[in-house]
Design brief:
It is a single chain. The protein is of the alpha/beta class and about 400 residues long. It has two domains: about 70-280, Rossmann fold, CATH 3.40.50; about 300-405, Rossmann fold (3-Layer(aba) Sandwich), CATH 3.40.50.720. The protein contains 14 helices and 20 strands. The strands form five sheets. A seven-stranded mixed β-sheet has the order 9-8-7-10-11-14-13. A six-stranded mixed β-sheet has the order 17-16-15-18-19-20. α4 (about 130-135) links the parallel β8 and β9. α5 runs parallel beside α6 (about 175-185).
Length: about 400
């Protein structure tokens, strides 16, 4: 039993995924013996309706100068963030002469570059220095820091108040969410808005996409939990927009001005979440059972292929795949290697399970019989790209929403 990070109510885990390494902690053989592990155990707070993990590694273990995630590697995400930025400009910046946009967890500047190219004053806040440096190389104003109330005070003194604060797939990473929400409320102009998107609890429950639960994702949000978490800081949920990214996300718009109308989309979404049971303990018990069923089917399939000496590789050395491989005890005897296009991961080994990560060229130069689609949230982009793999007789092993061969 521990306390909810948001409201302080007592909470307890409804399941455990077992001992887990840092999800993006790809490592070299000499680091195997000193690898860090923690228990990955999610809990649901019935008071504020937020799903969270009980323990989370110190942020410095996850976000540092060797952080190996770069958003620019996906053309789909480049297009997504260009559209996101265009919508922000069209809906929230047209009435200002010199608007100022701040993004929390701006990564390699993939979204803010759209504002930079348009000549809009902006600032990215990215805690991983190596990633922030890439953003600067693309002309995106970026500082390397963890945002909180103290950082908000500094930004106000240096840059003034912001018209829009953005984040994408970041808010769910922040354990001190109350301090961050207070900092955002300080940083915004009275007419300003916070817009963020993250993986959506409703989709995770529906698809049993348990791989969305890992060390960085300390929270998994619903519209109900977002409204509850940010209201004490004067931020009112005024709109929600479902997104296809990351296998199902939700974009939330919150305003300081309580006179702003709450959209019918919010009203409908809250009602739908009640109907889906996203505030019910029974829902999470079923989720636990579904996770266990998925694990059993995937391990049985990969064990069968191992016994038959089939060639199986992984496609995409994603953070999410760390949860899958460790929860399902998938090792080098099941998967020959994991193919990935990120240079910082190549030549290293997967966290916990120590499967080699090899360049994409290794995948296309000698196609395997099967490829586990770890990057399943980019399925359409990948399938279109990898027609030659299918033509060679290769087949995909999928596990979201269910284990199958395609």
């Amino acid at each position: 039993m521990t306390d909810c990070r948001i409201c302080g109510s007592p909470i307890a885990p409804f399941m455990t995924f077992g001992q887990m390494p840092v999800a993006n902690g790809f490592l070299l053989p000499e680091q195997f013996d000193s690898e860090y592990f923690f228990e990955l155990a999610p809990a649901f707070c019935s008071a504020c309706n937020i799903l969270q993990i009980i323990d989370q590694p110190d942020p410095s273990k996850m976000f540092h100068e060797n952080y190996a995630f770069f958003s620019r590697t996906s053309k789909y995400m480049q297009d997504h963030f260009a559209k996101f930025a265009a919508k922000v400009c069209g809906s929230h910046l047209t009435d200002y002469d010199d608007p100022f946009v701040v993004e929390l967890g701006s990564n390699d500047g993939i979204m803010l570059q759209n504002f930079a190219d348009a000549g809009i004053r902006h600032l990215g806040i990215e805690p991983s220095e190596n990633v922030a440096e890439i953003a600067r190389g693309h002309g995106v104003n970026t500082i390397s820091d963890f945002f909180d109330e103290m950082v908000a005070d500094r930004l106000i003194a240096e840059h003034g108040l912001a018209d829009v604060v953005l984040s994408a797939n970041v808010m769910c990473h922040i354990p001190n969410l109350n301090s961050v929400a207070s900092g955002i409320a300080k940083l915004l102009k009275p007419s300003g808005v916070l817009i963020f998107e993250d993986p959506y609890l409703g989709d995770i429950i529906k698809k049993t996409s348990y791989d969305q639960i890992y060390d960085e994702h300390v929270f998994v949000f619903s519209a109900t939990s977002v409204a509850n978490a940010f209201a004490p800081h004067g931020l009112k949920l005024v709109n929600v927009e479902p997104q296809k990214t990351h296998g199902g996300s939700m974009r939330y718009t919150l305003a300081l001005d309580t006179r702003q109308q709450t959209s019918t989309a919010v009203t409908n979404c809250l009602a739908r979440e009640t109907k889906l049971g996203l505030s019910s303990a029974a829902t999470f018990e079923r989720f636990r059972e579904n996770c266990e069923t998925s694990r059993h089917r995937l391990t049985r399939l990969l064990g069968k292929f191992r016994d038959e000496n089939r060639r199986v590789v992984g496609y995409g050395a994603t953070s999410k795949s760390t949860t899958v491989m460790n929860y399902c005890s998938i090792g080098p005897d099941h998967i020959e290697f994991v193919s990935d296009t990120t240079p910082a991961k190549q030549g290293k080994f997967t966290p916990g399970t120590h499967i080699p990560v090899k360049p994409y060229q290794d995948f296309i130069s000698d196609y395997p019989e099967y490829a586990v689609l770890f990057a399943w949230n980019h399925k359409l982009e990948i399938i279109a790209k990898e027609d030659a793999f299918r033509q060679s007789g290769g087949q995909w092993i999928e596990f979201i929403p269910s284990v199958c061969i395609s």
